[in-house]
Amino acid sequence: MAERKENSLSLRLRARELLKQYWGYDSFRPLQEDIVVNAAEGRDALALLPTGGGKSVCFQIPALMRDGICLVISPLIALMKDQVENLQKRGLEAEALFSGMSFGEQENLLDRAVEGTIKFLYVSPERLRNKNFLERLKHIKVGLLAVDEAHCVSQWGYDFRPPYLQIAEIRPLIDRVSASPAAVSASPAVASSAAAASPAVASGSVPLLALTATATPNVVKDILHQLKIKPEKVFQKSFYRDNLTYYVIHDEDKRGRLLRIVGKIKGCGIVYVRNRRKTEEIAIFLKKNGFSAEAYHAGLTAAIRSRRQNDWINDKTQIIVATNAFGMGIDKPDVRFVIHLDVPETLEAYFQEAGRGGRDGKRSFALLLYHPSDKKSLEDNFRTSYPTIEFLYTVYNALFNNYQIPVGSGEGVTEAFSLQEFCTMYRLRAPETMSALGFLSRAGFIIVSDNMRNKSKIHVPVAHEALYKFSVDVPRYENIIQTILRLYGGAVFSWYVDVSEQDIAVRSGLSKEETIEQLKFLQKRNIIDYEQTEKGATVSFLRDRIEIEKEFLLPKTLRQQTKNAADKLEQSIDYASSEHLCRSVCLLRYFGEENAKKCGVCDVCLAASEKVLTEKEYKEIVKTILPAVREKNLDIRQVADMFIQFSEKKIALAWRRMLDEKVI
Questions:
Q1: Is 222 in the same domain as 306?
Q2: Which residue of 5, 66, 273, 548 has the fewest CB atoms within a 10 Å radius of its CB?
Q3: Are residues 440 and 343 in the same domain?
């Protein structure tokens, strides 16, 4: 027992050294160190930490303390790339293996993994079904298996990914070449540390560390079962955030309310909306009203997304208006507000997105704007998002037929893909087809590249007069300018519009090459902003074609996911429409914290206290606002906007009394 305590202490000291050496921190956040030591000692665990709780460090540091590679299962390519880039910046050998890489690139990376010259290897769960990868995995020395976004393993989770079920099946495979008990990894990035100061770690089977920020009690139980975590060790930090205030605001005029909110709360923030077009519209609306804002969604080119994200992170832009494509892997600590103009489809998604506020520990606000009409909109969207099993079969078969791939073939094939051409060819509606492709992707049959719907984009930043003057001064480009305006209208002056170089070429009488050349010239002269799409979309087939009607898992999985999604949607609507239970208590109970206490600062808690105005509060409000009211002849709305130290309800109560007593 004494020896074990001594070993644990030595591991803690070593973990702190690595934290300081590579991350620059002197100490861990609560619970992080216990998770790190548990993994370093070679034991399985599930770690539940809130968004911004530092999950990645919990597997990255014990990986440095164990011999062999850390194999990380992660569901999103963007998230993988972000973590790999961060590790590489710290001088650590990290790589990601994903479907967009050529066969040669993949083979070269796997060779390095077998040789042990990289320390962190990120792969998607779909990779675990790839025969070549599984064969190579038999020769890779794995020291730690990390499962990020572990809620995806559960059919009760909000983003169930069937390929996650393969994780437990590969454990015996990697145990055969399990890391030997060594003090420190042989990775060059770590070998420079004082190996002699590090204690030996446990040998035997490779430990598995699963991590997530969102898991209900049912999901926790399912994760432990599906990943075969033994013993069933769970590290769970309370999801309560004392610096994050939740509000639900019932208002039909959401845009007007949005302006008042961002006018009151100083600092940067995120505004979440449901679709891409709305991100552009709200960003333009905010800019027209004097705020610094930009739109962000998956339909933008990678260059635009990167630029806008960096401008927001570096405080060049105050507000980013985004779909849920924004936020994963972005750790900006000083986000003062997160506003949802549309109700998210699950409380897990809302909790994760809202949790991006206030990671620096300072007061931040998570505000959800709701109107009863939102319910119908959500239900309509739900019907589009979950295809029937018959439609799923249709899309699956059409996809293989499109590339003339017979039953028993297809694994590893990657082809160019156009959603528009595919839907036209097989007479399919694009929204439902998108949903079916998404399901097939989550189920591990295919991967469609992120830029599936991406097109080149044009925005005209100059005024109409300046554009006309340029076309007169440089008549060679008048034709293409007029063609752009005829094809896309005045929208190009407001935001980035999807364009087709081929369409512009046909209408202008130019070749496609000449069209691109002239567009690039106009870009250099700052007459237009032209973002040329990097490359066409692709579809990668991860499994051989099957006679899908005989595949039992598919309809069963779809029915289960549809039912789960319907239940979660109802709970999300209940949260938004309820006015009786503390918001924090409601969210925490959803995640299994039954003894959660009222926060005292959400809209529900404040409503109870704001029904009464004390004499002291009344006198303070009158003393503060009366001089301005008399001097500037303000109405109650202007007073509420000007004196943000008082709640609108308190001001309304004071205003009514001031009128009754003829003070105003």
A1: no
A2: 5
A3: no
Q: SS3 of 144, please? A: strand
DSSP 24-54: --SSPPTTHHHHHHHHHTT--EEEE--TTS-
- 5: pLDDT strictly greater than 70: no
Q: What is the pLDDT of residue 468?
A: 87
CATH classification of the domain holding 251? 3.40.50.300
pLDDT above 70 covers a percentage of the chain that reads 91
pLDDT band at 12 (very low <50, low <70, confident <90, very high): very high
Cβ atoms of 541 and 412 within 8 Å: the answer is: yes
At which residue do the structure tokens 């520990």 appear? Answer: 361
- Rg of the chain (C-alpha set): 28
Beginning with the edge strand found earlier in the chain, give each strand of the sheet holding 120-123 in spatial order: 94-97, 120-123, 69-73, 142-147, 208-212, 45-48, 234-236
Task: Calculate mean pLDDT across residues 638-642.
Answer: 84
In 3D, which of 58, 236, 237 has the Cα closest to residue 144?
Answer: 58
| String of DSSP letters for 253-267 | -HHHHHHHHHHHS-S
* Tally of domains within the chain: 5
CATH number of the domain within which 425 lies: 1.10.10
Q: Pinpoint the alpha helices (H) of 41-98.
A: 55-65, 77-89
Same domain, 420 and 445: yes
Q: Are 420 and 367 found together in one domain?
A: no
Considering the entire predicted model, what is its pTM?
0.72
- For 570, the 3-state DSSP assignment is helix
Q: Nearest 5°: phi and psi at 654?
A: -65, -40
Give 496: exposed, middle or buried? Use CB within 10 Å, 0-12, 13-18, 19+: buried
Q: Give domain status of residue 422, yes or no.
A: yes
Output b/e per residue, 522-541; b: 16+ Cβ within 10 A.
beeeebbebbbbeeebbbbb
Residues 432, 544, single domain; the answer is yes
Of the residues 315, 338, 371, the one at which a domain ends: 371
Residue 155 is assigned to a structural domain of this protein: yes
Q: 3-class SS at 15?
A: helix
Residue 296, SS3? strand
Cα(201)–Cα(199) distance, integer angstroms: 6
How confident is the model over 370-391, as pLDDT tens digits? 999 999 888 888 888 888 888 9
| 3-state SS assignment for residue 340 | strand
Over residues 86-111, the pLDDT tens digits come to 899 999 999 999 876 777 788 889 99
Q: What are phi and psi of 367, to 5 degrees?
A: -120, 130
Question: Is residue 430 scored above 80 in pLDDT?
Answer: yes
Residue 596 in any domain: the answer is no
Helix (H, G, I), strand (E, B) or coil at 526: coil
Domain end position, chosen among 343, 371, 399: 371
DSSP strand E in 403-515: where? 414-416, 446-448, 456-459, 497-499
Residue 204 lies in a domain: yes
Pairwise CA distance, residues 143 & 208, whole Å = 9
Closest CA to 207 of 153, 151, 138, 143: 143
Residue 21: DSSP 8-state: I
Residues 100 and 134 in one domain: yes
Instruction: Note whether 604 and 585 are within 8 A (CB).
Output: no
Domain assignment of residue 75, given as a range: 2-236
**464 shares its domain with 340:** no
